[in-house]
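Figure 2 data, in text form.
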Amino acid sequence: MNMQSLMQQAQRLQREITKKKEEIDQEIFLGKYEWVELSFNGKKELQSFKITKEGPINDDDKEMLEDMILLAIKDSFKKIDEETEKKLGQYSSMGGLM
């Protein structure tokens, strides 16, 4: 292989990586836990937040609701990380391209 061919291959791989990353960034990932639903895009930017509990939230529920929010965030981020690994994991050994 000559240098020009290697450069073309590297550029093609870079385009593939960029395309897959853009796909992930555009995708919406729903995180849920009990009374909480939220969604993030692939850049981990919050897109929506919803409390699904009907009726009032009393003081006893407040701490539990805070925990549910954290768990829903972790659920979304886990899904984003799994999708990123699925689509881009094959390129992880090519550190210079990512």
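Caption note: Helices lie at 3-26, 59-88.
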